[in-house]
Every structure is written in structure tokens, then in C-alpha cells.
Specification:
439 residues, alpha/beta, 19 helices, 5 strands, 53% helix, globular
């Protein structure tokens, strides 16, 4: 498969650095079909006016972030708007020093659509909405945009959207800001439009500043930012999109909060979001949160330490090894199989060769041997992850490319590969278990 060099470079450099690339995921997606199908089923429900909430549970490097980014690509192709953020000590769901608002700002900053996949799509969305309303008005009334009555007809149509939002919490203020944006757009007042965008981004420090610049006596805060996310979901549907998907990764940063009361407030916010989606209080919105098994299942500090969440999310009596319920609120990622890792290395070798314009020399037998070595490390059963294997393989490709005199088969089998050299007597996997890789 031919891949543009720009995308090939982003894929290889991101993976070598241990991070998930924002572009080019379809070229390297392997496995995870079951998980993707389950999440895309949720997406169909969201597009019909429903809501969904899922947790993705997996250890570091297991592919959580990769799965989130894959879903992100899929839903943007289905006309969804996506907002995403990684939690950190400065970004939480709830806080007393602006941590909740910081998460909101990051989500809005990363607002993405199919035509603006790298974030910063808010202004584009607002302008597209106004353009859409003007086109509909012209089609329905037969008026020319130059007609004196055209502006009034457009405002009437905009009020239909605004009235629907006004019934929601903070909906009146949200709708008022949309009106200000439309009027500024109609007057060609870019400065006023920029102020509205600044407000939607949560960048006004206090009500006094917002009042003096925009005439509104409210700002988005730590306590109510989630209400505005729900408003955005409804607005986006009215603006012609299918819905809103919210991706929040690195839940471990809540688990790490030392103060138990602060942790509980954050888990309470998760409970609010979870209940809203299940009880029909939120529409056209999906929320997916990613975290390690420990930060979700630990009953002392994790999500399960909040009893109301544990009772809703914990597996029932029938959950067991090898039997997976993909309709459950928590999706547990299982490791990629040897076969899937082999397919992944083949894809990476092909992309690497295209990026650096050389004829690929590494054979399938070499890749099989490489995977055997990786999975025969001490503790690989429980500790090795796709991230580690990928980084090692890209390093191998780099070395082979820069040193064409190397015999790849001998190099993989030699002491040069000590970092993946099997420890004598430490691996209980037999040669027969690798026999299926024999070519």
C-alpha cells in the first residue's frame, strides 16, 4: 500500500517516540476489530439522539491511546466532531484552582472535524453553521441575500436553534453568545466574533471582564464546564453534524491525586457524566475515558473506590477469562496475538522502506525471529506491550537501513540483540508454541 511520505514520517517518528500518531492510523491498524465494532455501535446510537459512556482499560503501552485515536478517525469520517484531552496534574475533571476549566480549554482547543482533523475547528464550525442557516433561509424563502428582509429571516431561523438550547442548563447564555456571533458575522465585525470565540474557549478570567467586553454576566467555570460540553453536543447536531465524541485519556492522573476528598470529587463528576448518558439527560454525545486497570479497579484509590461507580461498572458474576462482554461499560484490552504483531511488523517494514526509498531486505522469517526474541524476554507474559515491540522493531529497521552491510538474520540471532536475548531457563514457552510462525 502506497503511503504519502508526510504521513509515513509522522507514523514512524511518533511510534519511535512511544506516542500514537494523529494521522496514518489506517495504515497500521491491526486487531482490535471487536473493540472498534463495539464503539462504533455506540456511535450509531449517538447519531440517533442517544448518548454513550465507555471506559477503555489497558496497561501502559497496550494500545489504549491507539484505540482512542482510531475511533477518533472513524467518527470524523462519519461527520462527528471530536474533542480530546489527556488528564494531568493541571487538568482534572474537578478542581478548586482551575483544573476542571483547564480540561475544558484543552477539549475545545482540540475540537476537530474531518476537514480540520488537527484541532482548532471551533471558528470553522460557527462559520459553517451561519453559512448553512443563510443557505437554508435563501432556499426556503426565495429571498436574495441582498434583500433587506433576508437578515430578519435568518435571525428567525437562528432563534429556532436558540430556543431549543434555552431549555438546557446555561442554554440561555450559550444561545445569547451564538446570537452575538451571528450579528458580528453579519456586520463583518471580526473583533466581536473573536471575543465570542474567546468566551466559548473558556478564556475569560472573570464575569467582570466578560461583562465589559461582551455584555454577558457569566463565564465558564470549574463547576459547570461539563454543562457547556452537553450544550455543544446539541448545538453541533443543529449545525449539521452527527454529534460530539469526547475522548479523555490518562485517568491515572486522578488516581494519583494524594487528597482522597479531591479524588472523590473527580469521581463524582465521572458519575454525573455516566448517569447523564444512561438516563437520557445528554443527547448526541459520547464519552470515552482511558486508564490502566489499576486506576479503574483499585478499590482504595481508583474509580472503584467510589462505591456508586463500582456498583455500576464492576463485572457481574458471569464475567471470566476468555469470555468478553463488549456491551459492558468497561472494555478490557487484551494483548495482541503473535500473528497480529507479525502483521504489524510487516506493515511497519513496508512504511519504513517507502519513507527512506530503499528496497526492503528484512524477510518474514526475520520478523518471526524478532517477535520470538521479544516474547521470550523474562516477564514478557505480563509486562511486554505493543509499544515496546514497535519501538524495538523501528530501531532495528533504522540500524539495518543505515548499515546495509549487516546480515539481518545473523544480527537478530547475535549477541548484538542482548536487549531481547532470551534468558536461559526463564521462559516457559516452548519451541512448539512458536511453530505456527515457521515459514
Amino acid at each position: 500500500m502506497k503511503i504519502p511520505k508526510r504521513i509515513a514520517s509522522a507514523v514512524i517518528n511518533s511510534l519511535k517516540g512511544g506516542v500514537v500518531p494523529r494521522t496514518g492510523l489506517p495504515y497500521i491498524t491491526v486487531g482490535r476489530e471487536t473493540e472498534i465494532d463495539a464503539l462504533l455501535h455506540d456511535v450509531d446510537i449517538i447519531a440517533d439522539g442517544g448518548a454513550a459512556f465507555r471506559f477503555i482499560s489497558g496497561k501502559y503501552g497496550s494500545g489504549k491511546s491507539f484505540l482512542l485515536q482510531t475511533i477518533r478517525s472513524h467518527v470524523m469520517d462519519r461527520n462527528f466532531v471530536v474533542v480530546d484531552a489527556d488528564l494531568s496534574p493541571e487538568r482534572r475533571l474537578q478542581g478548586t484552582k482551575g483544573q476542571g476549566l483547564a480540561t475544558y480549554k484543552e477539549l475545545i482547543r482540540n475540537m476537530s472535524t474531518k476537514t480540520r482533523p488537527d484541532g482548532g475547528a471551533l471558528t470553522l464550525i460557527l462559520d459553517r453553521w451561519i453559512s448553512g442557516v443563510q443557505s437554508e433561509t435563501a432556499a426556503e424563502t426565495g429571498m436574495s441575500p441582498d434583500s433587506p428582509e433576508f437578515g430578519k429571516a435568518v435571525e428567525k431561523k437562528i432563534y429556532e436553534v436558540i430556543n431549543a438550547l434555552s431549555e438546557m442548563v446555561h442554554g440561555f447564555d450559550f444561545a445569547r453568545l451564538l446570537t452575538i456571533y451571528y450579528r458580528a458575522s453579519a456586520d463583518g465585525n471580526d473583533e466581536e466574533k473573536a471575543k465570542v470565540v474567546k468566551w466559548f474557549r473558556g478564556e475569560y478570567i472573570n464575569k467582570t471582564e466578560a461583562k465589559s467586553e461582551l455584555g454577558v454576566n457569566i463565564v465558564i467555570s470549574d463547576d459547570d464546564w461539563y454543562e457547556y460540553i452537553k450544550l455543544f453536543a446539541m448545538f453541533l447536531k443543529m449545525a449539521g453534524y452527527s454529534g460530539l465524541l469526547v475522548l479523555i485519556d490518562e485517568l491515572v492522573n486522578i488516581y494519583k491525586i494524594p487528597n482522597s476528598i479531591t479524588r472523590q470529587y473527580n469521581y463524582e463528576k465521572i458519575l454525573t457524566m455516566y448517569n447523564d448518558t444512561l438516563q437520557g439527560k445528554a443527547k448526541y454525545i459520547g464519552i470515552i475515558m482511558g486508564g490502566t486497570p489499576q486506576c479503574i479497579e483499585d478499590t482504595r484509590r481508583g474509580v472503584y473506590s467510589y462505591e456508586a461507580l463500582r456498583s455500576r461498572l464492576a463485572e457481574g458474576r458471569f464475567g471470566r477469562e476468555g469470555v468478553r462482554d463488549m456491551l459492558a461499560p468497561v472494555i478490557h484490552l487484551i494483548p495482541l496475538t503473535y500473528e497480529e504483531m507479525l502483521v504489524l511488523t510487516e506493515k511497519l517494514a513496508d512504511i519504513h522502506a517507502q519513507l527512506f526509498d530503499y528496497e526492503q531486505k528484512i524477510t518474514q522469517e526475520d520478523m518471526v525471529r524478532f517477535i520470538q526474541l521479544e516474547f521470550s524476554r523474562i516477564g514478557s507474559d505480563s509486562h511486554i506491550t505493543p509499544r515496546e515491540v514497535i519501538r524495538d522493531f523501528i530501531e532495528l529497521l533504522d540500524i539495518v537501513y543505515q548499515n546495509p552491510q549487516i546480515n539481518i538474520s545473523e544480527f537478530i540471532a547475535s549477541d548484538s540483540m542482548t536487549h531481547v536475548k532470551p534468558a536461559v531457563g526463564q521462559d516457559d514457552r516452548t519451541d512448539e508454541e512458536f511453530a505456527e510462525f515457521e515459514i
